[in-house]
């Protein structure tokens, strides 16, 4: 998971920080990618004055990223992750790789529904392995009325599930661990605070548990 990160080197990261500090009215000295005395002082002043959470929001506003920084690519500002399931049986495509399963789901979405690509951004297989679907930089197709501003993660499985089921009724421990890791990874590079499930927005069982309780 590296191709969406804007920060490609320590110097690029420092340059980005210096630009943000500058935009917020703190003087970091020359924008040179070197974390020197003046940059450190500006960063400390910024944290002291604004507090971390408020400052993060100011950086997002000042840099017009809406919370997610992509390098030279179209983007949609994201503030939420929505969890889904594929509603497939546990044994569906057993023995195939997560990439093969993603390809099959892409085929359903493109051929059967007429979409341009798979609707989800990520798939998590029964063994915890991850396949990328639609690029994060592209708005997904997963919840009517909530596609812009959200990233979708779909768990493989969940056939016959109910929204009142426990996570472990339909999914594996490996999926639980990977879902938590993936959410943490995405949150680590965005300002996403809200994690929800498809059933928070529609009369559906998907993802087959109540995300707020699982969290
Ligand atoms: Zn769903």
Describe the structure.
The longest helix has 16 residues, at 173-188. The protein is built from seven helices and five strands. The model is unreliable at 1-5 and 58-74 (pLDDT under 50). With 215 residues, it is an alpha/beta fold. The chain has a five-stranded mixed sheet with strand order 3-2-4-1-5, with helices on both faces. Zinc ion binds at residues 84, 198, 206.
Q: Topology of this protein?
A:
Elements: H1 10-23, H2 37-50, H3 52-62, E1 80-85, H4 98-112, E2 122-124, E3 130-132, E4 150-155, H5 167-170, H6 173-188, E5 194-197, H7 211-214
Bound molecules: zinc ion.
Short description:
This protein is 36% helix and 10% strand. The chain is an alpha/beta fold.
